[in-house]
Amino acid sequence: MTRKPRAHTSRLHVALAAGVVLTMIAGDALGQDTTRRRRRTEDAKPIELTPAQVADLTKLANSRKLSVDDLVAAAKTYLPSGRHDDYVLFSSGGQSGQVFAIGVPSMRLLRSISVFTPESWQGYGFAGDNDAVRERLKINGKPVEWGDTHHPALSESGGEYDGQFLFIGDKANARLGVIDLRDWETKQIVKNPLTVSDHGAAFVTPNTDYVIEGGQYATVLGYGYATPEDYKKSYRGMVTMWKFDRAKGRIDESQSFALELPPYWQDLADAGKLASDGFFFVNSFNTEMATGGIESGKPPFEAGASQRDTDYLHIVDWKKAEKVFKDGKAKKINGFSVITMDTSAAEGILYFAPEPKSPHGVDVTPNGQYMVVAGKLDPHVTVYSIEKVKKAIADKKFSGKDDYGIPILDFDAVKEAQVELGLGPLHTQFDDKGYAYTSLFLDSAVARWSLGGEYDSKNADEPWKLVQKTPVQYNIGHLCAAEGDTVSPDGNYLISMSKWSVDRFLTTGPLLPQNFQLLDITSPGTTMPVIFDAPIGVGEPHYCQMIKADKLKSWDIYPEIGWNPHTQALDPHSPQKGKEGVVRDGSTVTVNMTAIRSHFTPEHVMLEEGDHVTWRITSTEQTKDATHGFCIGGYNINLSLEPGEFAEFEFTADKPGTYPFYCTEFCSALHLEMMGYLHIKPKAAPKADASDTKPATTASAK
């Protein structure tokens, strides 16, 4: 797909647009809050353009070949220095293993949050051999210092984003990360003990009681072994319910459990809310249970797993599952509690409903009444009613059972509507005006369509109908609307996570960035223009969520001098001013250090070869943005020290020498002078024995 040439724009049109554009910049382009904070500037006031200003802007627009639409798009997204974005977009970072935070509407990258991959600017994973982060990044005792992040999920209260925590899954290694949004740092990583890899994480229940990790490729649970010939008998799918302790800000693995599922390939999930609270829903594909084997002349997975017209939407009553787990009816697999399929069937926990073939998303409407499923190989989205699902379960309206005894709900009994949208529908988001938005991968477009039910009164269109499409560049995967996964979405903005960028940016070699395109969805009666292109040149992002910026209550500095980010508390071991120094107990050494502009105390640390060292540093800064770094070259030690932060690392002084250490963050005019020396004295060579000093006897002397 290529962009059509722009129609000729007259100087008059540009001139007329100029006044509109500057007024929008000065005022309220999208109904945004005009009291946004500014640095060193006052809130903009309405202005009147002089003829000379209009002429200058017209000349500039024409010289740069900008259309009226271009000028309007610029006005909608441009933020002067010091003015803050209305929203923050938290995006998965794909193979980077991280999470990206992006401001909306400016689309400025605000931060990359380290999760599964060491990152030197943040000192993440570079603080000594037994650093807490490095220990988190081990699986079965071996370092796994990369991840494939897919689905971030913001914590919720009552179905609303509360801005407290962020969860992110690692598809490659079946891990889940917990990020505290007070300081935007990863606090915990848990490894699923049942499987190697999982796609469907993370999704939260409406009050973040649980974080849901959906499955992906069936395997032998608990790292077991079976051949492809034993697929149906021995392979299994699963979905995990990680219990979240909000007070501690941690996953409680002891109160977490999983559900054993048939060896279909489970995919993405979404938790019910309001009308559907207590349920969650999971897609699946490869209900054919294809085993592949292209190397043996068998149909490849892409053909074998796409033969049937439908797959199964998994409908899970998680409140019943929780009770079954608490009643002790789960079994242990590799030390983890699992509710078997037999128990799920007997207790009424799990039901299936036919869904469009090869689906890749299930999305619950804000009121919780409907579940929307898009099948990649079906041009429709299918809408299910939770009321009809509950009634079908109560009335036992089943069309049969699958091979594992799970009841299959009658499709017509649970379906509310089907809406034809286009080719390759994938994922759906919602606005505040009764519309849904679905990504169309093959059409490279976003489809806007009208919801029915109680949403009839919110929109002016006939229910369950396609309203319009907007082309995007290109091959859109996920999409994200402002607060679009909550009980009260905002509308205003939508992000197209376009997988290809082709001709959008300068060529960067054969590996091109993906493209986050910002769409304006404020006016249902008009088009949904693309108003910004943002290249994402680090990994392949998959999914994102967009939260109101004012919901985030991030710290400017840590609450107390000596704060430990790992425990989120004042650390009793943190060195304080006047208490610095080196403490030796035999070959065990503790270094107590403080950092403040522009020196470390102490500046010389004397060690001996073989010493085991515990090094503790407190940043005594109390000024916002006054960050220090600390590194020791040759020992793989690198820290980031935010104001008030305490850090600790250990290492063995096994390499004698004189090592400069210094602040890696440009912190002041005397930044280069903020350094010191680590001196590691070699062990004394053992005295030679007298017998060793006798001259050797040569053969000729004999």
Q: Give the CATH topology of the largest domain.
A: Methylamine Dehydrogenase, Chain H
Shape: globular
Overall mean pLDDT score?
92
Using only CA atoms, what is the Rg?
A: 30 Å
Helix content: 10-25%
The unreliable regions are: 1-16, 22-41, 696-702
Helix vs. strand class:
mainly beta
Count of structural domains: 3
Q: How many helix segments?
A: 10
Number of E-type strands: 46
CATH architecture of the largest domain: 7 Propeller
Characterization of this structure:
Helix content is 12%, strand content 38%. The N terminus and C terminus are likely disordered. By secondary structure, the chain is mainly beta. It starts with 10 loop residues before the first helix and ends in a 21-residue tail after the last strand. It has 3 domains: 67 residues, no CATH class; 465 residues, Methylamine Dehydrogenase, Chain H, CATH 2.130.10; 119 residues, Cupredoxins -  blue copper proteins (Immunoglobulin-like), CATH 2.60.40. A hairpin with an 8-residue loop joins β30 and β31.
State the gist of this model.
By secondary structure, this protein is mainly beta.
Spell out the blueprint of helices and strands.
Blueprint: H1 11-26, H2 51-63, H3 68-77, E1 87-92, E2 99-104, E3 109-113, H4 132-136, E4 138-139, E5 142-143, E6 149-157, E7 160-170, E8 175-180, E9 185-191, E10 203-204, E11 210-213, H5 231-234, E12 237-245, E13 250-261, E14 265-271, E15 279-285, H6 301-304, E16 310-317, H7 318-326, E17 331-333, E18 336-339, H8 341-347, E19 350-356, E20 359-364, E21 370-375, E22 380-385, H9 386-394, E23 398-401, E24 407-409, H10 411-414, E25 415-420, E26 425-430, E27 435-440, E28 445-450, E29 466-471, E30 476-482, E31 491-498, E32 514-520, E33 530-536, E34 544-548, E35 563-564, E36 569-570, E37 581-585, E38 588-596, E39 599-601, E40 604-608, E41 612-619, E42 628-632, E43 637-641, E44 646-652, E45 657-662, E46 675-681
Helix pairs in contact: 1-2, 1-3
